[in-house]
Design a protein that fits this description.
This protein has five helices and seven strands. With 173 residues, the chain is an alpha+beta fold. It has one domain: Gcn5-related N-acetyltransferase (GNAT) (Aminopeptidase), CATH 3.40.630. The chain has a seven-stranded mixed beta sheet, with helices on both faces. The longest helix is centred in the N-terminal third of the chain and has 14 residues.
């Protein structure tokens, strides 16, 4: 398996994976298939470099057949007072590749990247409380819960809660 930054040459496979993720796992994302299926390829390409900063991107996991099988986004705040904070978003692994360490490998690669960024002290993320495998993975890497948002998502008549998690690189924060 290869894990690397996605680039503009990957925009078609990224769009396909993102739309499949929104269909297959609607509770894992704040966006919806209905919203994003209308986006153009340039809209998707713009996500591959958030804030036009090369430190920010979407990492992709490619399987043995060079198929994109997983993704995880990372971005760093660009405002001076919040430059020490990064965020993880859009974690997804194809169902047929789950349980094989793809999500853990993606998370470890992104955390390794983040630890190399000067001045970055913490990374936050949100995860729906019913996504137990993801919650377990994040906690295994040291993420701690700092809040819970009740009724954060409303999907097909049902509300879902989200946990807010943070990983501190320096525990003297």
């Amino acid at each position: 398996m290869e894990i690397r930054f996605l680039n503009t040459q990957d925009v078609v496979v990224y769009r396909e994976l993102r739309l499949q993720a929104l269909k297959d796992s609607p509770t894992a994302f704040g966006s919806s298939y209905e919203e994003e299926s209308c986006f153009s390829l340039p809209d998707f390409a713009a996500r591959l470099r958030p804030h036009n900063d090369p430190a920010n991107s979407i990492f992709g996991a490619f399987g043995n057949t060079d198929k994109l099988i997983g993704m995880l986004g990372f971005s760093r705040e660009n405002r001076l007072k919040r430059f020490h904070i990064g965020s993880l978003w859009s974690m997804y692994v194809l169902p047929e590749n789950r349980g094989q360490g793809v999500g853990a490998a993606l998370l470890d690669r992104v955390l390794s990247h983040a630890r190399c960024l000067s001045g970055l002290r913490q990374i936050s993320l949100t995860v729906t409380t019913n996504n137990l495998p993801a919650c377990s993975l994040y906690q295994s890497r040291g993420f701690e819960r700092f809040g819970k948002e009740h009724n954060a998502l409303f999907i097909n008549g049902t509300y879902f809660d989200e946990e807010h998690l943070v990983l501190y690189f320096n525990h003297d924060v």
